[in-house]
Every structure is written in structure tokens, then in C-alpha cells.
Amino acid sequence: MAAVAPTPPASDGMVVYENVSKFFPVRVRLGRKDQPELMVALDRINACVNKGELITLLGPSGCGKTTLLRLTAGLIEADEGRITIQGMPVTGPRKDGCMVFQNFGLLPWRTVMGNVEFPLELDGVSERDRRATAREFIDLVGLSAFADHFPHELSGGMQQRVGIARALMRKPILIFMDEPFGALDAQTREQLQEDFLKIWSLTKATVIFVTHSIDEALLLSDRIFVFSTGPGRIRAVVSSPLAAERLDGDIRTHPEFSTWRAELRQMLRSDSP
Amino acid sequence: MSTIESTPRKSVPASQPTLGQRIREIVLSPNSIRTLSVAAFFVIWEYYGRRMDPIFMAPPSAIFNAALELLQSGALRKAIVESLWPFAVGMALTVIFGIAIGIAVAQWRLVEYILDPFINALYAIPRIALVPLIVLWAGLEFAGKVTILVSVAVFPIIVNTYAGIRDVRGSMLEIGRAYGATESQIFFKIILPAAIPFIMAGVRLSVGLAIIGIIVAEFFTAISGLGGMIVEYANVFATAKLFVPIIVIALVGVVLTELVMWLERRMSTWRTLERDRF
């Protein structure tokens, strides 16, 4: 890559962030008048996500981690800097980058099958072909018996499995996950984390995963982007010490787990004034 | 850690109701109470109806005979056709215009700002006040009846379609955007299905108003159809006959409303169930 940008991060860059900033308009009260102002949500983010990596964006609410995810997904535009995916600037949502939503984002009038086939329906794939593909992914997430059920007939964990199956339909190179397990109870969350790791290891997709849970970040990631808040910045990039072992069972029981967790917590805490 | 000894039970047998309980259940079921209530009403009506001046009141038996007479002479059939035909056309136009205007106003700010003063003004005026004007423009016949019906019945559909589309949450639209749906795909696959329960509720309200609309139209315009029949028999104090079109209208109203409610339930199942969940 030519050295056009100030500090181009060196990598084979699946996703490259170069001085990415995002501002949101807010109203500040000055005396008797409301003065419009721009709040800095993300301030000059420079980072790089390698192909096939699972990256978590870790930080407290309001640190801009979800904003960075939405920028990458092309749902909103950066005010400064640029984001490239495989060298191409992000201009909008891409068909090979799929989203898993915090509140599952299912269409309540569609069955599991109807929701999972939705992306291919948008692409104009014939009903027979898209149903066959959807069947495959519904099986993969373990919902074979529920294809004809409506979202409101499923538990939260099952609904998010539907969300994951839908995200896989286009065989994406990138999966964006916005606190996907945040709304689930503890047991369900652990089960989904494990299952998701297995599924991910089969797909080889690059994953950007937003979370505010230190455990989740440690469990899942290759690398963790630790955010600081006000303005949102990446304070540190931590290579997960447990990445190599995460697929081999419950790494929560790893002797070093609590040490690493304490270290990350310290990193997040030293942030607040 | 201690373990639990007994085998877990997945279900236990429910106790069978006794014969007495079953009989009580049938006798006190909502439908048997409804039937009983209506039967008692007719008995009391028959009893007192016979003792009153036939100019003011007719008992059910006299109304039944009048109905048979009107059926045999073909007058009732003619009146029903005269009412139902403009009703069907008017209702179809109401649904088409109502949904189209509702969508246009909800989807385009410009259309909203242009149209909403008129919609609000027309909504505020009792449409019956406009009947003489409509008669002046659209005439006393078919076109007049249809116009009056549409003017009375169209508003709930406009308002509900608008509310239904505006109610679609941003997060719902984001699903479409994140998966790269085009504007028209977002409209047809997300916005419209999400608004269907609202639109159907609007149609249900509109059916009730449309029945009022057609009868009012027939009172004021060409004295024809079931509304015309009422006016005609009232003028000559044929009270037994007067009740026949009223009962037909009541029956048609109940059947139509039930039909629309059934449709509404079918198309909105997901919404009710989703609501029950939380």
C-alpha cells in the first residue's frame, strides 16, 4: 500500500481504518440559547483487521464501539478518514458483509425459514434454491425442528440462532455482530458463544464483534480492541492469550483466565477519571 | 453434592370433569347465555308488541310475515341489490384510496404537508353536512351513493395506514438496509407487512362507517335500496315492513364485521402473539 495516509497500518488488511472519526450533533445549553454542537463519538481511529480474524470491540456503553461497527457495515458514513475493506472504500452495506443484531432483528411475521431465506430472497434467488440453502444453515444452528415456527414462539437464544443462520446465508467474508448475546441469560449466552465459535471455525469469515463483556471478549477473540470513552478511541489492542485454546472446551476454567480478566478490567477502569 | 432420587415427571394426569360440571359448563357457556338472552328478548317483544298500536310497534311474528311478503314480491331482493352494489363498489374504492393516500402521506413529507390540512379539515366536518353538496355534484343515483359512502368511510383507513407505516421502527428498517435491500424491497418486504395489522383495523372501522354511509345516502338521494325502503314504509306507517330492512342491515353488518375481524386476526396473528409475550 502506498504511503498516502499519515500512518497506514501495516497488514494484509481485510478491514483498514485510517483516521476514522464520527461526530454526532448535540444541543448544548449556553445561557438562554441552545447552541448546536458536534460531539466526537469516534476520534481518529487507526486499526486493522486481518483476514479470518475474530476481533472484539470491547468497551463501556457510549464508547463508540457500535458506531465503529455500523461505520464498517456501511450503515452510516464517517465524517473524517476512511475505511477500506479489501482495499475498497466502504460506501454502503455490502452483500458479503452480514449483520447479527443485538435484539435479533427478525421479521416477526416471517417464520424461521422466511427470516433465514430473506437475504437470498432480496438477491432474487429462486425459492427452491434459497430454501435449500436456508435449510442447510437452519440445520447448522440446530433449529431443524423449528423451521416453520414464528420468532415469538422461540426463546431468545433460538431467535439469535436464527439471526446467525441468516447472516451466514450469503457466505459472507465479513460478519458484523452487535452485542449479539447481550440480551440473553447467562447459560444461554455461554452455549451460544461456544456454538458460534464452532460455526465460525467452519466458515473462516472475518468477524467484528461488539461486546461490553470482558469474559466474552477473552473467550472469543483473536484480538481485542479496547476502547476508551469520551471521545471514543482505541486505547489498546490486545492479542487474546487464549485464542489458540478457545475451541478446545471451556477456557473459563483456564488457570490464567482470571488474571487476564483482571488485567482487561484494569485497562477499562483506568479510563474513568 | 446430593442427587435427586425420584424420576422427574414430565406431566401429570388432569382430573376428568364430572357429569354435573359438564352440564353446568354447557348451560353457562357464553354462547348459550347469548342465545337465551336473544330468545327472551324476542318473547318479551312478541308479548308487548301484540298489545301495542300497530302504527308504533310490530311484534316479531308480524315482521316475519312482512318479510315473507316482501321476499315473495321481490321488493326485498331488489332493495338489497340496489344497496349492495354501490356498497361493494364504494367499499372497494374506499380501501384502494384509503391505503394509497395513507401510504403517500406517510412515505413522502411533501405529500403529507400538501394534503394534511385537507384531510384534517374533512375529518373534522361531519360528512353528513356534505351530503347535499355531493348530491349536487355527483347526482342522486349510483355515483352519488358511492361518493357519499367513500367520503364517510375512507378516513379510518387513511389514518390507520399512515399510523401503521410511521410505527415501523427504525431497527426494523435497518434489517433491510443492513442486508442491502432496495428502497422498494424495504417497502414491500418490511414496511407494508409491518403495517398490515394497522391497516386491517382501519378497514374494520371503515366497514361500520360504510354501512352508515350507504343508508344515509339512500335516505337523502334517490329513495332506493334498503335505506329507501325504510323511508318509504315509515312515511306510510307500515311499521312491520319497516323493521324488515332494519333487520337485514343488522344481519349484513354483523356478518361483514365478523368477516373483516376474521381476516384481521388471520393477518395479524404475529402481532397479537408478540404483544402477549411481553
The structure class of chain B reads mainly alpha
Helix-strand pattern of chain A: EEEHEEEHHHHEHEHEEH
Average pLDDT figure of chain B: 88
| Overall average residue pLDDT of chain A | 87
The number of strands of chain A is: 10
Report on this structure:
The complex is a heterodimer of chains A (273) and B (278). Chain A has eight helices and ten strands. Chain A is α/β, with parallel strands linked by helices. In chain A, strand 4 (80-85) and strand 5 form a beta hairpin. In chain A, helix 4 packs across helix 5 (156-168) and helix 5 runs parallel beside helix 6. By secondary structure, chain B is mostly helical. Chain B has a domain at 80-270: MetI-like fold (Orthogonal Bundle). Helix content of chain B is 80%, strand content 0%. In chain B, 32% of the residues are buried. The mean pLDDT of chain B is 88. The chains are: A alpha/beta (273), B mainly alpha (278).
What brief labels describe this structure?
heterodimer; A: 273 residues; alpha/beta; six-stranded mixed β-sheet; 10 strands; globular; disordered N terminus; B: 278 residues; mainly alpha; MetI-like fold; 11 helices; flat
TL;DR of this structure?
Chain A is of the alpha/beta class. Chain A is built from eight helices and ten strands.
List the helices and strands and how they pair.
The complex is a heterodimer of chains A (273) and B (278).
Chain A: E1 15-30, E2 33-49, E3 54-58, H1 65-72, E4 80-85, E5 88-89, E6 97-100, H2 112-116, H3 118-122, H4 127-140, H5 156-168, E7 174-178, H6 186-203, E8 206-211, H7 214-220, E9 223-228, E10 233-239, H8 257-269
Parallel strand pairs in A: 3-8, 3-9, 6-7, 7-8
Antiparallel strand pairs in A: 1-2, 1-4, 4-5, 9-10
Chain B: H1 19-27, H2 30-50, H3 60-73, H4 75-107, H5 109-124, H6 131-138, H7 142-166, H8 170-178, H9 183-220, H10 225-235, H11 239-277
Helix pairs in contact in B: 3-11, 4-5, 4-7, 4-9, 4-10, 6-7, 7-9, 8-9, 9-10, 9-11, 10-11
